């Protein structure tokens, strides 16, 4: 089991990043909350990881903190919530916003997340309520502003990242089209699009 990576960040293109650890490049998928906390390309990054082994692939998911990884692991234990949806939930709303939805039985806010239908939202509320109460003393760090990454087309990268998070291509384009993207990095565009979608 690979539980933690520390190495040089060499690729940072949401939702995928790559960390060079002793000459081996580990490809990792991460939620936007982790991307916001990443250092510049070329700097050292530390990720808490979760390995999923399937017949056709070994997939590594990375998180900025152990608490965030623990929250992801709780999510994917719920029937109907896979790793992709777990990343979408972590990317689409903060831990505090998610906890509020669970406490207040706010199905409407949860169904705004990509891939979350009414039944899944109801299941999340029922199954996460006890887990959140047990973890009431711990909280996840909120997203912090990462230094802007210089890339060629931040709008296209933002749309691609939203599609990778589970939004349909036309929906991702519409989310980005409604924003003033001038002089924004792809991460800032994604953050604003997700914030607007959570409404």
Helix-strand sequence: EEEHEEHHHHHHHH
β-sheet strand percentage: 15-25%
Regions with pLDDT < 50 over 5+ consecutive residues? Answer: 137-151
Name the strands of the widest sheet in spatial order: 3-2-1-4-5
Oligomeric organization of the protein chains: single chain
Index terms:
alpha+beta; globular; single chain; 3 domains; 9 helices; five-stranded antiparallel β-sheet; 199 residues
Structural account:
The chain is α+β, with helices and mostly antiparallel strands and 199 residues long. The chain has three domains: 4-63, Beta Barrel (OB fold (Dihydrolipoamide Acetyltransferase, E2P)), CATH 2.40.50; 81-134, Orthogonal Bundle (DNA polymerase, domain 1), CATH 1.10.150.20; 154-198, Helicase, Ruva Protein, domain 3 (Orthogonal Bundle), CATH 1.10.8. The protein has helices at 32-35, 66-76, 83-92, 95-103, 107-110, 118-134, 154-164, 169-177, 186-198; strands at residues 4-13, 16-21, 24-29, 44-53, 58-63. Strands 3-2-1-4-5 form a five-stranded antiparallel sheet. A hairpin with a 2-residue loop joins strand 2 and strand 3.
Q: What's a quick, concise take on this entry?
A:
With 199 residues, the protein is of the alpha+beta class. The chain is built from nine helices and five strands, in the order E-E-E-H-E-E-H-H-H-H-H-H-H-H.
